[in-house]
Design brief:
The chain is an alpha+beta fold. 50% of the residues lie in helices and 9% in strands. The chain is built from 26 helices and 13 strands. The chain has an 8-stranded mixed β-sheet. It has a 3-stranded mixed β-sheet with strand order 7-8-9, with no helix packed on it. It has a two-stranded parallel ribbon with strand order 12-13. It starts with a helix and ends in a 14-residue tail after the last helix.
């Protein structure tokens, strides 16, 4: 405030009114060549609805970048000059969310098939040195932040950014040039203020403004930079040197970011189809440790065969547009902890409760309070608890197992274990066949298992008897051979053993009540 007062006295404009807003460049469809058929119909509907009400509206961010690069976007965001309340009023199913950044989710469809188009309002570019400052963080200063529109903490991290402004200022406050372009599907024009199209052609990832300052405003940009570098590395993109230089120093600022937000960013790194590339980028930028404890474990174990197989499988499923669940991948990463703790506990506990207690211990030490006791934790537990049940293929067990809602996840987990030789591949094949078979075919498969088990018992029996005979001293020691003829067990001095005497006295004579019937 003092700075503003001095500037006013000196006749100077405040620094916040003089940002680098770039130069507006309008690129027509015939130049950029975006394939309009790849634009999501629901995103088009949001843009048209807002424009019909007299507002500006554009597809923005990563979707525009991907369209320019010839990639089909998976998610679409919209930016507009309409306020969140005005956006909400324009749609039947729209919800205002967020406190740090107030945005609107416009929802299409229901259940698992629903689609969300995220709509943000153009934000003003403000000087964070002039923002209201709080001493604490999002939690400790919750009441203080309630009525603030632009606030930062002591380190300069933005805690509130809800001051609306024009499009050019909105572009200046976005992070990377290739994410700061606006596409109007109605006119076909792309609006570019900071050379995003040129950087896309040069295959450069470049921060808008001073990188160190931008990372300080929002440390999560460190993770975003890694994610974009990983995703675009297959196309030959590289991070600009100035953008990469402060990454390692800025990573320390992540300690003040809420754990839930870091957890979400970790999942984006691992579940957008470039998990292995993201891990390589973390190592390349010197960020293999220190971003988030659970991510540190993933990186440390990424060279283990089972975890590598799971990461590859996740990337493959994303590439095939198949659903992926964080519970499955994290269950794979933490399986070695569960397995080892289970083995230790099984020494003193029955197997089933030992596994339950091992899972609880892993949750406490590895996941903590972030989602570990919610649905994600419940799904992970169910995947792990299924594993010993796959070994039992008798009775009603297989029938009840395949009917469980999480059976497919548990089976896929067991299949990965078979791929790395942890369980017999024949077991994986059997369950694959059983899960797809009709009831009569399942009965046949179970009958085959019973026959195989019976054959194994039959083959094992002669070997067991041979071992027992070999262990008996009568076959080798003449002292025992003589006594055996009378049915009397003797010791080393030839006398009947005390134990044998007691058993003989308790034995009832043949023909008495309770004994075997006599024959004449």
């Amino acid at each position: 405030m003092i700075k503003q007062f001095i500037n006013k006295l000196m006749g100077k404009a405040p620094a916040s009114t003089l940002p680098n807003l770039g130069k507006r460049l309008v690129v027509p469809a015939k130049v950029h060549g975006i394939n309009v058929d790849w634009v999501d119909e629901r995103a088009l509907n949001v843009v048209r609805t807002l424009q019909d009400r007299g507002f500006e509206a554009y597809i923005v961010g990563g979707a525009v970048r991907d369209l320019l690069l010839g990639l089909k976007p998976k998610d679409f965001d919209v930016a507009t000059n309409a306020t969140p309340e005005q956006v909400k009023a324009a749609f039947r199913r729209a919800f205002i969310i967020g406190r740090r950044f107030r945005i609107v989710h416009v929802v299409y469809g229901r259940g698992r098939e629903h689609e969300v188009i995220e709509v943000s309002t153009f934000r003003a570019h403000l000087d964070n040195t002039e923002a209201e400052q709080v001493k604490g963080n999002e939690r400790s200063s919750k009441q203080e932040l309630a009525n603030m529109k632009h606030a930062v903490d002591a380190s300069g991290r933005v805690l509130r950014d809800n001051v609306w402004g024009p499009q050019d200022q909105d572009a200046a406050r976005r992070d990377f040039t290739i994410n700061a372009m606006y596409y109007d599907p109605e006119t076909g024009n792309v609006i570019d203020y900071h050379g995003g199209i040129a950087d896309a052609k040069k295959k450069v990832i470049r921060m808008i403004g001073d990188p160190a300052t931008r990372y300080r405003e929002d440390p999560v940009r460190v993770i975003r930079a890694v994610r974009f570098a990983a995703k675009l590395s297959v196309l030959g993109f590289k991070m600009e040197a100035k953008t990469a230089a402060p990454l390692k120093r800025a990573a320390k600022l992540l300690a003040d970011v809420p754990q839930s937000r870091l957890f979400d960013e970790m999942l984006k790194l691992l579940q957008t189809g470039h998990a292995l590339a993201s891990i390589e980028q973390l190592k390349l930028q010197g960020l293999a440790k220190g971003i988030y404890p659970l991510l540190d474990i993933v990186v440390a174990r990424s060279d283990e065969e089972f975890v590598t197989t799971a990461l590859n499988d996740t990337d493959r499923r994303v590439g095939e547009d198949k659903p992926v669940a964080p519970s499955f991948l994290l269950a794979c990463v933490l399986w070695s902890d569960v397995r080892e703790t289970w083995a230790l506990r099984s020494v003193k506990q029955p197997s089933f409760p030992a596994l339950q207690d091992a899972i609880d211990e892993v949750f406490d030490t590895r996941i903590g309070d972030v989602s570990g006791r919610g649905k994600l934790g419940a799904d992970m537990r169910e995947i792990w608890m299924m594993q010993p049940r796959f070994e039992k293929r008798t009775g009603s067990g297989p029938w009840t197992l395949v009917d469980q809602s999480r059976f497919r996840a548990g089976f896929d987990f067991m299949r990965l274990r078979a791929d790395v030789g942890e369980v017999d591949e024949a077991l994986s094949d059997w369950w694959q066949e059983f899960s797809m078979a009709s009831d009569s075919e399942r009965e046949d498969l179970l009958q085959q298992v019973r026959q195989e088990q019976q054959q194994q018992k039959t083959q094992r029996a002669p070997r067991v008897h041979a071992v027992r005979r070999a262990a008996k001293p009568e076959a080798e020691d003449p002292r025992f051979r003589d006594a055996a003829s009378d049915g009397v067990e003797t010791g080393e001095d030839g006398a009947e053993s005390p134990a044998k005497k007691r058993r003989r006295r308790r034995r009832k004579p043949t023909g008495e009540a309770g004994g075997a019937p006599t024959t004449e």
